Amino acid sequence: MEDLTPLFRLAADHAARYRRSLRDRPVGIPADQDELTRAFSGPLPTTSTPPEQVLTDLIATAEPGLVASAGPRYFGFVTGGATPASTAADMLATAWDQFATTAVSSPAAIAAETAAGTWLKDLLGIPASATTGFVTGCQAANTVGLAAARHHVLRQAGWDVERRGLLGAPPIRVVAGEERHATIDRSLRLLGLGSDVVEPVAADANGAIDPASLHEVLRTASPGPLIVCLQAGNVNTGACDPLREATDLARRHGAWVHVDGAFGLWAAASPATRHLVDGVELADSWACDGHKWLNVPYDSAFAFCAHPAAHTAAMSYTAAYLAGSDGPPAGAALTPESSRRARGFAVWSALRELGRDGVTSLVDRCCALARRFATGLTAAGFEVANDVVLNQVLVNFGDDTRTDDVVRAVQSDGTCWTGATTWRGRRHMRISVSNATTTETDVDRSIAAIIRLAA
Ligand SMILES: *Cc1c(COP(=O)(O)O)cnc(C)c1O
């Protein structure tokens, strides 16, 4: 067999060089999309190209369009970096080319997911008996959680949704905060419930649901299948819904409680922030990302479910050729995919690398750095619009046009990268501190750049 060492070394050398460059390279890339597409395009080659040449061409063609989003001064969206061990583990997952469908197709991949799932539940305050599906992102995790919910509430109403679908089914009511993430609506669409099904609950000043409003919405509810969607970590403000009180209320109406905790669930991993997700263990399903705050490479997320039977019924999938894998449900039995990437290796590696203390300090550090942003920008005379309870900061630079101008200037300056959002009807710069390598110096450099560009 041909020796792949030189080829793989070429990729590894470039990967290491790229990662080293992240501290200094301009963060945003004002790339010309058409030019990039042209550089990748051309007639489909008729004959083969040596792999080393392909790789060299790929690197040269892609480089001008790479965003340093894995670096320490990228504060856009809620974007984590990728820890060294999890990055290297993901490279191995690719080389091993396992399909993590069952324990027969890859015993190691399923074992890694099982072990990583146990560690994740421990860190996130989720009951140890919950099942864990390793999916692509919190979008998929929300879909899995809500599919399990749909199964469960309809089963209680005597309806088998997996067999009969939704035509003629008893109506399901879905109650969710007005500040829910947009992926909840897409999950509801994909599940045939439609986004109009949502009965919105008002939010408090920082974007967490208001329990009095939840009480009101539930009170006016007719009895029947009911799902309540809560949130840990508002994508704009970081605010977490009062999980204990809200779950209590929902339970009184017999609801299934789903928690979208894409990044906010990680608050449970630190004694300093754990109170924000008090009562998290009471829910029925949870969605959380690995590629955001855990700093695992894209793509990586988890769908947890307190009712293994509902989880597997919603995802169940059988074929004669899949028989033979006994044992607890795993892999494709807990996710919407059939063939699937072995995501457990990278997650297991990140958790092993960081350890419990490392995860705690990652959460604490990001929160402290978010507060440092808020303090620095407030001192410079700008308005921080949210209560910085976690890692998200919203900054206002005056009127909407001016705020958008400042964000645009920051994005093209290259010192750091921040996004923009609309919050309470006004435009804001949105800063998310989610990268394990960000330091106080990075934040101070970024604050200085923002102040300079706003002036
Ligand atoms: C990011 C986010 C999502 C979507 O996660 P993806 O990983 O992009 O699929 C869902 N909910 C919340 C609260 C988020 O912050």
UniProtKB/TrEMBL annotation:
One of its GO terms (biological process) is carboxylic acid metabolic process. Its cofactor is pyridoxal 5'-phosphate. Keywords: Decarboxylase, Lyase, Pyridoxal phosphate. The modification N6-(pyridoxal phosphate)lysine is found at K292. It comes from the Bacteria. GO terms for molecular function: aromatic-L-amino-acid decarboxylase activity; pyridoxal phosphate binding. Pfam families: Pyridoxal_deC (PF00282). SUPFAM superfamilies: PLP-dependent transferases (SSF53383). Belongs to the group II decarboxylase family. This is Glutamate/tyrosine decarboxylase-like PLP-dependent enzyme. It comes from Sphaerisporangium rubeum.
